[in-house]
Design a protein that fits this description.
- Two copies of one chain form a homodimer.
- With 433 residues, chain A is an alpha+beta fold.
- The first copy, chain A, folds into two domains: 279 residues, Bira Bifunctional Protein, Domain 2 (BirA Bifunctional Protein, domain 2); 96 residues, 3-Layer(aba) Sandwich (Rossmann fold).
- Chain A is 38% helix and 21% strand.
- In chain A, strand 12, helix 13 and strand 13 form a beta-alpha-beta unit.
- The radius of gyration of chain A is 28 Å and the shape is elongated.
- The two termini of chain A are 56 Å apart.
- The relative contact order of chain A is 0.12.
């Protein structure tokens, strides 16, 4: 006889908590649905090669990877992008562009467990393939912003820090000397999580001189209305124009107010190519990114497909929950039950009919499945927050009656059994009083 | 440049197919929801011990099991029952009984890939903990039957073959000699998949004589109305009474008509203790079980919990899809779009407002995110089955008008832009004509 424990970094959700999470996930998915994103279903296991080809063998240290019985090197998917990219390539010709996909599911990474970060985590992924237009970037921003505002968080609560990879890349590329642009971008991405000294050290490792580190800091602080000035420093004209066009398109979609220009926003993943953004708690109370996204125009081609621009966002359920909780808008769901049909004595047939007819109308209806007394059934009905109890008792039934009881008010009324629920779509005590 | 392939036995679902699957899963979950089953969220990885303790080390051959970076022996969950049993034990005191849980998610088994059987497969699990009453067994049968009839399959299409483990066990236990009851039950479970000779050989391996094999066949053919006769042969009185009580309770729930007594229905898993059932295609065209369930009263205690009776069913999405397809009722979902807002010229602001207001009413609304011409946009609107196209053109707009076009009929009408969508919840061409 042993107790079993769940594996570290994995969670389970009991009904109340699950109901809150379901409401939140439905809200996020519904924002995408209204924009015409269509659900796809994706495998949870992929060839490890899907990740190592891009990121090297070291990436396996961060994944749940293993050999299957036939010796295939596989991994639990750590993110959706490579999988949907593979799916786009597989049906490149048949799919109508732009391809707009959404899905919510768990992913897995073997990493340190901390606040809002687990080894199994849920994300809603929203992606557009086949459009290089700034309106596509803006649409992804709009879906993400509406998902949050639909959840009840406001412009006071969050901000999207928006940047462009090629602005960073252009500035870094313009520095004299051998600068490892990718390494420098990764350093910038980490800036908020490390000390200024560690940050400077990483930049120097990437090939920047002390003077260049200071210069970079100045350039990255450029405000939105002076972006054009960067063009004088480096070959970033196209990137600046694109970034400005995305922000203008966001304005037309009513979500510019949630966007802050932030050239230090880099996103860690190597595959981003254009506009990138991260959502942050405006109050700074959550000291980590809520979620992020961006443009990855080269990925499909690198997977063997035709050149296909792409942009997307991955909204993590746990960090969204933390933001909602911080903002005081996390749904407080409780178990909800429309009717409890309470059966006493030899009335099972009538009680069964009533329960069936109420369920046929779409209601949540429970009945006794534990052989309980009147009092114990009423107590159970209360524990599941039943709104109305339909009491089907032997004596009542002999008089052709059942009793409706409203649990909150305690009010009750007798109703002729042959007309219950009858024509009533949602029969209440009030209707019969 | 390489093409990546999905891993053998894993599937992906593009939007049309996913929409059909989503409709089917929602239908099954909704049947459970109406009976008051509450959603739980469960981890996809468990300690391998959760399976090996019960089934021995050999079970690992059928699982995706591996060691994680810290040397933990873990497995991708092959079924939900051990996980929910663990969760019940973890909160045994706090949870209100009966506990009624539902969830839909993938599971994994490393087995031969064949029609309707994959290495990653989806199930909706419905379980009741804390009631030993026949009404609980009947409720699980009722949820399963309603899920199928809600999908459109009828009593002509499917049957639940219902049995009781202790009827089988009692009959086998009553045979003279050393009979390995579990081995014999596993043989009976396999009967339909193997030849009569193989079946008889397995029974002989389990310790039955040739004469006993024949006798067993006769006993297993006992019809429902003569179940009582079995009591004369063996100590099966309690089991027969329980089986009859479950069928009577199914009658009161209106689902007796879907149940056939079938004493050869054994269910392979060792943890079943009472009534067991399997759903089959009545036409026999699908020559395998659609799904199954039953009572497992000892599992919670064997996991270190207090004795807690339990009964449940696991409805597999792929085999349900096969049954629905065979019955001609599989949902033919296509991409559905309520509105396409077609924008030509410098009308982005108005088009954006209209799209936003239509989305605020909950509609699925797409707009151009690919910089397309009028004709290309109309073609795209057609490809996503847009019901209505709202044309926001420069010349129209100068006159204060937009054009509504119904795509099926081709009818169109001009509408004053300031009153669109205005008070209309679902504006159509007809409303403005």
């Amino acid at each position: 006889m042993t107790d079993y424990e769940r594996v570290k970094g994995f969670r389970e959700f009991y009904p109340e908590e699950m109901a809150a999470r379901r409401t939140a996930i439905d809200t996020v998915e519904d924002a995408a649905r209204r924009y015409g994103f269509r659900e796809v279903g994706t495998p949870r296991v992929e060839s490890a090669r899907l990740y190592t080809d891009k990121s090297g063998e070291d990436i396996l240290e961060e994944l749940y990877s293993f050999e299957d019985k036939a010796g295939r090197r596989v991994a639990l998917t750590p993110e959706l992008t490579p999988t949907v990219a593979r799916m786009v390539v597989a049906r490149q010709q048949a799919l109508t562009k732009p391809i707009k996909w959404v899905s919510t599911r768990p992913f897995w990474r073997y990493e340190q467990v901390q606040q809002g970060r687990f080894r199994e985590f849920y994300q809603t992924n929203v992606d557009i393939f086949g459009s290089a237009e700034p309106t596509a970037d803006a649409e992804v921003l709009a879906v993400a912003a509406e998902a949050l505002t639909d959840l009840g968080v406001t412009g006071e609560d969050f901000e999207f820090r928006v940047s462009h990879r090629d602005v960073l890349g252009g500035l870094l590329g313009d520095f004299e000397g051998e600068v490892d642009t990718r390494a420098a971008i990764r350093a910038i991405d980490k800036r908020e999580k490390i000390t200024p000294e560690e940050y400077a050290a990483l930049l120097r490792e990437a090939g920047l001189s002390d003077r260049q580190v200071g210069q970079l800091d100045d350039l990255l602080a450029t405000p939105a209305d002076r972006l054009d000035e960067l063009i004088a420093f480096a070959d970033v004209e196209e990137a600046v124009e694109n970034l400005e066009a995305v922000l203008a398109a966001a304005e037309r979609r009513g979500v510019r107010e949630y966007c802050t220009l932030s050239l230090t926003t880099a996103r860690g993943l190597d595959y981003y190519t254009g506009v990138v953004f991260e959502c942050f708690d405006s109050t700074g109370e959550l000291n980590r990114s809520v979620f992020g996204g961006g443009r990855y125009d080269d990925l499909i081609e690198s997977f063997g497909g035709q050149p296909t621009p792409a942009v997307g966002v991955a909204a993590g359920s746990s960090t969204i929950a933390l933001l909602c909780q911080r903002a005081g808008v996390w749904p407080e769901e409780r178990i909800a039950t429309d009717y409890y049909v309470l059966q006493v004595g030899e009335t099972a047939e009538t009680a069964g009919r009533i329960a069936r007819e109420l369920r046929d109308r779409g209601h949540v209806v429970e009945t006794d499945i534990a052989g309980r007394s009147f009092g114990a059934q009423l107590e159970y009905a209360d524990s599941i927050n039943a709104e109305t109890v339909v009491i089907v008792g032997e004596r009542d039934l002999a008089d052709g009656q059942v009793t409706l009881k409203e649990m909150t008010s305690g009010e009750q009324v007798q109703v002729p059994v042959e007309s219950f629920p009858g024509e009533h779509d949602r029969p209440t005590v009030e209707q019969f009083s």
